[in-house]
Amino acid sequence: MPPLAVRAYTATTALGRGRDAQAAALRESRSGLRRNDFGRERLDCWIGRVDGLEDLSLPATLAQWDSRNHRLAWLALQQDGMREAIDAAIARHGAERVAVVMGTSTSSIGSTEEAYAALEDGRMADAAARHTVHTPHALGEFVQHATGLRGPAITVATACSSSAKVFAQAARLISAGLADAALVGGVDTLCGSVLFGFNSLQLVAVEPCRPFDADRTGLSLGEAGGFALLERAGVDEDGLQLRGYGESSDAHHMSAPHPQGLGATLAMRDALSRAGIDAIEVGYLNLHGTATPANDSVEAAAVAALFPDSLHASSTKGWTGHTLGAAGIVESVIALLALESGELPGTLNSRTPDPACGPQIRFAPQRADIRYAMNNSFGFGGNNCSLVFGRA
Fold first, then answer.
1. Which residue in 103, 266, 342, 378 has its CB near the most CB atoms, within 10 A?
2. What is the domain count for the chain?
3. pLDDT at 253
4. pLDDT single digits (tens) 29-55
5. Are 219 and 205 in contact (CB under 8 A)?
6. Phi then psi for 231, rounded to 5 degrees?
7. 224: helix, coil or strand?
8. For residues 93 and 80, what is the distance between their CA atoms, to the nearest angstrom?
9. Residues acting as catalytic residues
């Protein structure tokens, strides 16, 4: 595929606001996980919570969109010069030619929970009956209104692969001539449906998650928001680029991956093929690595079958928690940071490597000058997405 320039990128997570906060915490092996202090009913677990959302107010012009999810989206938009980059894209192409492609798993369902909890005689209070908030597409519409962009607007809701698949969707929109640039991203926030829903599947650990550890017991949930601005790369242009994407659906089970990782392998192969590179050229792979027993072993086997032993692959969910629909953008930001700095993260909290994992899975950080980095995001229902980023 023709490369797409990454003009700006940012993430806000439990580690802090913006790229520098993410990079510093990764460098210092400082986790953002804390013992669960979210909500009135406290599940015994650890979470990645973004501070300050309760005290944040949206501008008056956006007050009708107020929700925890949209507050986090607004907060993330203010970081790393993202607003200025968007305004510059509007000046170059016009607002109608810049697409908005957002990923989320639960959108503003936390506000929907609050509305139902406050029902009176089976009726929703007028203040809570905000149709602009209680929809899966609420995030995409909010970001359009918050930025002034008027190109195609799409919200991708494919569980944990959502904000990785936005890169693929944006590449297709630009390739088809429907847009000249795209603001991509994802936001998901903590809520009861997420915490207790995953706990009902027996996937939540009571201690901080330990991806690929022999004694791992489950995931830690988190919240995050992030964005990237993409447009066609100029000839012989330097800088960070999206070089390829791969998508697949193994449709094996509603919540479990294919036991041989067939869909994951297909997505990774497809991404490498679009990028026009061989597996040996990838310097860093940010793994989906949720710390659930099934997910990690399947992903590790797929990686070992495709990549040489020299690959540095790690999961960064020990820092941020599993941010669900925001995982794709957050971990793409981490892959882009690795490309820029040469600092390749390890796998936080993990101590005893699972014998089923290959030598590609690294617990310790490493410094290396790399040209290509990948990100894996795999979601419920067997939908998978892999992305290849490069340094031109």
1. 103
2. 1
3. 72
4. 999 999 999 998 899 999 999 999 999
5. yes
6. -155, 170
7. strand
8. 21
9. 160, 288, 322
